[in-house]
Each structure stands twice: as structure tokens, then as C-alpha cells.
Amino acid sequence: MLDQSSSPSPTTGPGDMLTQVLLGLRLDGVEYGRCQFAAPWALAFPAQRDARFHFVARGVAWLRVGESPWQRLAAGDAVLLPRGHAHVLASTPEVAPVAIHNCPRTPVSDEVYRVDLGAAVPTRLPPVEDAAADTVLFCGAMRFNLDPLHPLLALMPERMLAGDLVKRDPAVPALLDAMEREAALDRIGACGILSRLADVLAASIIRAWVECACGDASGWIAAVHCPSIGKVIAAIHADPARNWTVPELAQLMGASRSRFADAFTRTVGESPARYVAKVKMFQARRWIEQDGMRVAVAANRLGYDSEASFSRAFKRIVGMPPSSARPAATTSRPRRPVAPNVASSRPPLAS
Question: What is the pTM of this model?
């Protein structure tokens, strides 16, 4: 979410909007692993609430998201799945995958694990330089501070591919080395430091993806690259409680109401009114769920005349009544351990 401490200026351009987006996105948790594989291998990652990222440090991997075609990832390539779609990573598309959660884990320390894909894992794993691994991956899962259905994340594609990230951002190898050291040494505060480092890695992947304009020129990428629409979206996210009207937003863009509404809908994929309503409701959900705000207070802050009308709008957009978002009605999610430090060896081919 965009930093709400200050509103964007009328001259906010696409680069400034991207800066605000990256500064505002935060991770509530991180799962991290360095994986060494000798072919043939294949891992299936189930759909989940959390985002996932993969970085190919050495060798080649093949990626398939859902039922989409296979895509080859070479050394230096990175992929971010913002909404955690189900996917498979493999040495070749022909290998039958093993579910990641079915792989036994061996504790290395309190919060770092090895994953055994079939063969024995040695007592002391050698460093990457000495390992006879065909492929080395850095993998992780992260929980953004936004609901996966929040319109800002919903605008993102199911996957963000950043080709040759190392060449685009020379700081990435040092960043990955720092993450690996934190995971391996198990020092005090390692989880917090890993989360912050993963923040930067995720931002780097998103920035590289935006800079190379990968994918279709629609949705989030189109909004970021369009200065006029970009500053409108930035303004909405900077002040979600404001009673935004189409004339106000059109004036911010410097266009007539009809021209603005057409341009916004064409770029974002939904009307300005619908987008504003979504931002308001997911902000309300955050207030109620995380801050413990009373429903009536949230309704009043967002300018609703009654709690009933607010509740109807909330349920229509979020899919449940606001009372269900109260802390007492939800189960806090335990913090997950930092996942595998190293996954190694050859998984068996499924018969």
C-alpha cells in the first residue's frame, strides 16, 4: 500500500508512483530457502495466500503456473507470484513433480531446515562453490501487508518475470549472500533481518519487471507507465478515506469526466468509482482486522451515513460482513519458520 504519511503532488509521474508503491509495500513474514538440485527434479508449489519468489542463481529451471505453458528460466532470471498461484519448477517439463510439503525437513537450527528430495542429505552440506548441483535456486514466500484481493495487488499479473536480474541490478548477488548468511548463522533477530532483505528483493524484482515492460501493457504495468493515470492511483491510495469523486479525479488528471473515466477504465480494467470503493473497503478491513477499529467508527471515517449502508458495501466488495473481520472472529496466523536453508539431491521420478 502507498505510504499514507503524505499525498502525492499533482506532478507525480510514473517513476514517483512506483517509488511510493515500493516504499509502501511491506512484508509481514518471510520464508526463505537456498535450493541445490541435480537433475532430474521437479517441485510442485500449491496455491497459497502468500506471494512467492524464485531466483535462478545457477543452471536452468522450467516454470509452469497453473495450466499455462512452460517457461524457461535461465541463470539471473527471477519470478515473483504476487498472489501465490499454484506452480511447478522443474529441470525439464517431463519430470513428474513432488509436492514441496511432502518433502521431509531436517532441522539445521531453530528456524532453518534442510529439505530431502529423496536421497540422503549429508551431515554437513558443502558451500555452493563445491557442490555438484546442476541448478541453484533462491526461493521464498512472503506476506505483503495488503490483502491478496486488494486492488493494488489485483492489478498485478499472476507472475512477474524479471529477466537477467543480476545484470539489471548488480546489488542482487550481495543481497542474496546476506540472506544466506542470516539463514545459515541463525543469529538473534535473523527472521526480522530476512524479512527486510526480502522486502528489498521483492522490490527489485518488481522494479526490473516494470523497467523492461514485461507482459501485456495493461493493468498495473500500464498504470505505472501512464503518468496521468499513475498520479490518480497514487492519490487514491495515499488518502483512501477521502470522499473521492469522479470530477475530482478527472481534475487531478487534467481531463474531462468522460475522457478520464474512459482512460481509467481502459487502463485499470474497472471504473474509477469501483476502484475507489474497493480501496476504501480493503482499508476498512485493515482497520477492523489489524487495528481493532469498531465497524461504526470505520463507517464514519469513510463517510458513510450509516453502519448498515457501510456493511452492505463491505460485504458486496470483500465478500463477508465487516463483523467477520474483527480480531475476535479471526484466528491469528502463527509465524512460520524460515524454510529450507538448502534443498539438495535427486528426487525420484514418479512412475
Answer: 0.63
